[in-house]
Specification:
transmembrane helix, two-stranded antiparallel sheet, 4 strands, MetI-like fold, disordered N terminus, disordered C terminus, two-stranded parallel ribbon, about 350 residues, 11 helices, about 65% helix, Phosphate_Transport_Permease, mainly alpha
Amino acid sequence: MTQPAANSGSPSSGSPPGASQGGSSVTEPPNKYVRKKRSPVRLGDRIFSGAAVGAGILILVALAAVAVFLLIEGLPAFTADPSDLPGDQNFWSFVGPLLFGTVFAAVIALLIATPLSIGIALFISHYAPRRLAQGLGYLIDLLAAIPSVVYGLWGIFFLAPHAVPVFRWLEKYLGWLPFFDGPTSATGRTMLTAGLVLAVMILPIMTAVNREVFLQTPRLQEEASLALGATRYEMIRMTVLPFAQSGIVSSSMLGLGRALGETLAVAMVLSATDVVSFDVISSTNSSTIAANIALDFPESSGIRLNALIASGLVLFAVTFFVNYVARAIVNRRREFSGANA
């Protein structure tokens, strides 16, 4: 018995929608009048977004205002007669030793504080028991709350006298190096003492940043390294430190910026003169820009005041350059770290 033929006008059951029917193509155009519904924006979100944008713009405006003020007030010192400037010399001869002392003291502090901050942060994050780590973390953070004048008094009355025997030992056995050539200062108020005080001052912020970065290391990576037979030191060297490279650079640059701008403690500790010297244990030391401004500002007027403001402009430019280089290094090393894994 034959089956009845299928209706030629009906489409086959397996044909997709829009297939040819009776030689004509049928398509359904998309509806252009259907709008996608946007999620409603709450009033609180708008206020918070506006406040955040406003804060960012305010920071930029304040930074630009400081730069413009320093440039306008300090510009006369660049073209002033040398007889009107401190020391009867041109501006760059005046600011050169100060810039050298600023960078030199900050580098000494950074060389001392960087390994200490890494070691303390590793001890708190990976070695110490939880209760001890918590208390030690609070203690390190409290160091940031100590005023600069207290650090200066500590440097003058405690650190400097106790450092004199160490300076004499360095002069005796390492005097062939230009850094310990001597003669040793009898008071201990040297560039090395100032660098030690600055190192203690920048230690809290560097340790706090390094500690938080070390704690962000993925736990699975640490456990996998230990499971493969690595010791704790090997796990830290192969897992934690590579992951935290960008954070370590950031903390170092933050500490360097803090050391470059420190004023009162350096002014109190350092026995400064207008020289350029690499000897860190001698009584002949270069001053810093910030300390020189603090000491000479009350007695300065006219073009000498403009010279101090111009030196502040130089310090501003140096600090800005250091932060720019730090940001470039962090961005370059970010792709090699585990932060994006």
